[in-house]
Model the fold of this input.
Amino acid sequence: MTTKPTTNNTIGRAPNLYGQLVPMQLFSPEETVDAVVIGTGAGGAPLLARLAKAGLKVVALEAGEHWAPARDFATDEQEQSKLFWMDERLAAGKDPIHFGKNNSGIGVGGSTLHYTAFVPRPQQDDFQLYSEFGVGVNWPLTYNDLSPYFDELETFLGISGPSPYPWGSLRNAPYPLPPLPLNGAAQLMKRGCDSLGIRTSPAPNAAASKAYYQKEIGWRSACSNRGYCQAGCSTGAKASMDVTYIPLAIKYGAEVRSKSFVTTFDTTSTGAISSVVYTHQGVEYRQKCKNVFLCAGAIETPRLLLINNLANSSGQVGKNFMAHTGLQIWGQFEDDVRPYKGIPGGLISEDTHRPKGADFAGGYLLQSIGIMPVTYASQVARARKLWGPDLMEFMRGYNHAAGINILGECLPDERNFLELSNEYDRRGLPKPRIQFSNGPNEVRMTAHGEKIMHEIWTAAGATDIWSYKRNPHTIGTCRMGPDKHNAVVDSEGRSFDIPNLFIADNSIFPSTLSVNPALTIMALSLRIADCFLKKKNKVGT
Amino acid sequence: MHDHYPTGTVRALLQSDLVTEATRQVLVDRLQQNEVVIPQFFNAQLFVTLKAVCARLIPQPATQERVDLAGTLDRFAAEGKGNGWRYDVLPPDEETYKKGVAAIDETSTLHFGLPFHLLATENQDEVLQQIQNGTAPGATWLIIPAPVFFEELLAALVEIYYSHPFGKEEIGDASMADKKGWQKIGLNELQIQEPKRLNKGVDDN
Done:
């Protein structure tokens, strides 16, 4: 092996949790690195660390800032809107998706900066929906392909959860940390479910219930029950990528370039990508590379490909946009709840994973929810349609409000898709328009969940019960599959059209699964990296 | 009636050692924000209308200083501070806000023969209710669906109000006391820094 001259390479600095600067390898854009990773969320960060640890030269390009959470994150929703992707998206269809807040992230760590860290595993049957129901699609891989990665992730991230866990496949090991304490909403859900005979359990959460030693990185502190997970964790207790896989990647020689927005690619005569073109502080750069891992999420990933007319011989880029069924039920309680305290998703039930006699395919989970005050106020304004003294009066009940929601399957549907609009954003790029309407299966599942949640909340003692319609998470738009005619990437994340382009994020999900996506995105990311490394070693390049 | 909370609780917390520096800075800045006198985004006429609308949508308690809702919205709009998305049925934010606020006057004039800010409060409420219900007269509402505009404007104002320490005090929010986290998080478990309700069941209007 010959070592390339690395005269341009120097040592830079990256901030840690507290804003102290740690050394970071820098690469010259002129140097042909082994891989450029676009995006540093649940899709980009794990594989970045994996490739760096294998000795590859890797550069991550992240559109947003590299924050130091203990210094930069306020316990304030308006200030923390800096964690959300704010380039405007056009929401169309019968059930327009509310993007921005708590839906898509920006900054080193991506959407994990604002995820609630609710990390139950998908179940085996989630991956075989078509076989079970004759609708939706099967994944081109199985639960067993991902389960070693779930094991690895839960240990590395320090997941807090109950052992044994009541649902799904038998686990190889207990969760490494005991569950987090139950907050008011979790206790109320338990009260309601107990009286109806619905099993519940403290939820698996990627926030440390005790100080946790993270291999090769160091200690992460225990969760302080601050309750603002969706506005960014300022203590490092939450396993977002910026305090887990990103420092690991940097330790093994990866460079993370923040404020770097990718616009296009250079390609060779054979159609392979030879460099990634991006803008950093108003200046355009080209990073030469051998491989590209696109991990920008289910909106920006297809948008970038459509803008550049790449990797789309299947015509599937942008198609089958999905968002979970996620109806919330709220109510007022005599009890003092204080919805801002504790991990928001404290309690879970998966008794509704395959409900008996259901008139829909798939299923859903139930979870309790805490909520920050401004988010709550906004939902009240939109859904209750209250204003004037009625609104003010209702809002004074915030401390006695508690919610539960479903999180369930959404089937792929050709009527739900992303396209480029004729309107341009401040970067001069076409804004994406996303069509989304719940189909009959989602409508029936939501009605089923609404009825059960109503019963639970009534049993728990709620009054003035109301529903908030929503479809959380952005999923699909670059589906993986066995057939290049109707999929964008194969089961190892490789583009059928461009041999050195890989996609590793929620865009490649063929269906939503009936759990929150972050844990599965991370598992796919690690698996895609391992498949890549195995092939690379075999070929010997 | 719901709970009433004492005033001054958030301001007191900001003087304590229970708030991190990052959080304190943000909330103190918000408290000290000067009232917008000359709007940058809306013209003077629209701004007068908007102020009158704010007073009906979010009628602030007479007992406390006022949050500058219209001024903050003007500042955000001038900065192009969007929320990351918009309903596809609406024109771009800039156009929606300007035309939408102008259309409130349009409806008001068609219905009552006067611009919105000169109407009696019950007539103002009737105009706003028509807009929320989608029954308001006015050609602009053919371009901008009135109920969707109403929802967007209301949500934006509500977010501004409850982001402000005054709004937070009104609902008994102590979440900014973030420095030591929370040790008591179960039902009916309060810590000393969490305000308790006053006069339960009594309307103090």
Summary: Chain A touches chain B through 73 residues (CB under 8 Å).
